C-alpha cells in the first residue's frame, strides 16, 4: 500500500512540530502493538499446547474404552473413575473461579475522546491516554 501525503502550509515550523508529534505518537503506538503481538503469540502457543494435551487425552480414553469393550465390569469401573475425576475437576474449577461482581463479563475498554489537541485529529489525546 502506498500512501502519499502532501502538506501545504505557510507556517513550516508549526507544521514540522505537528509532524514530529504525530511521528512520536505512531512510534509509541507501534511499541504498544509490538508488545500486544508478543502476548498474542504466547497465548496462541499456550492454546496449541493445551489443544494437543486434550487430543492426547481423548485418544487415550478411546484406547482404554476399546480395550475394555468386552469386559463390562472393568468398563463400568473405568466409567465410574472418569465420573469421579470429572466431579473433582468441576469442584476445583468452581472453587478457584472468582464470583462475578455484576460486571456482566465485559472487559474494560478505554475509548479516547474525539478531538484532543486542536487540529491533530485526536492523535495527541489518544496517545496521552495510552501513556497512563
Give the SSE layout.
Elements: H1 12-68, H2 72-95, H3 123-131
Number of helices: 3
**What is the overall pLDDT average?**
77
Number of E-state strands = 0
- Describe the main β-sheet briefly: none
Query: Roughly how many Å is the radius of gyration?
Result: 28 Å
Work out the strand percent: under 5%
| Helix fraction bin | 55-70%
Decide which structural class fits the backbone.
mainly alpha
Uncertain runs are: 115-132
What's the overall geometry? Answer: rod-shaped
Give the termini distance in whole angstroms.
32 Å
Order of helices and strands: HHH
Please describe what this structure looks like.
The chain starts with 11 loop residues before the first helix and ends with a helix. It has a domain at 24-93. It is rod-shaped. The chain has 132 residues and is mostly helical. The longest helix has 57 residues, at 12-68. Helix 1 (12-68) crosses helix 3. It has helices at residues 12-68, 72-95, 123-131. Mean pLDDT is 77; it is low at 115-132.
Key structural traits:
single chain; 132 residues; mainly alpha; 3 helices; rod-shaped; disordered C terminus
Amino acid at each position: 500500500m502506498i500512501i502519499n501525503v502532501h502538506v501545504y502550509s505557510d507556517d513550516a515550523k508549526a507544521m514540522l512540530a505537528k509532524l514530529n508529534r504525530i511521528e512520536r505518537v505512531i512510534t509509541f503506538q507501534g511499541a504498544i502493538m509490538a508488545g500486544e503481538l508478543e502476548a498474542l503469540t504466547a497465548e496462541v502457543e499456550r492454546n496449541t499446547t493445551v489443544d494437543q494435551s486434550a487430543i492426547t487425552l481423548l485418544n487415550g480414553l478411546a484406547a482404554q474404552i476399546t480395550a475394555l469393550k468386552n469386559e463390562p465390569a472393568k468398563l463400568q469401573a473405568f466409567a465410574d473413575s472418569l465420573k469421579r475425576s470429572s466431579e473433582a475437576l468441576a469442584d476445583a474449577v468452581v472453587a478457584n473461579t472468582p464470583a462475578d461482581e455484576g460486571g456482566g463479563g465485559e472487559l474494560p475498554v478505554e475509548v479516547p475522546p474525539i478531538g484532543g489537541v486542536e487540529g491533530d485529529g485526536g492523535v495527541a489525546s489518544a496517545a496521552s491516554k495510552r501513556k497512563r
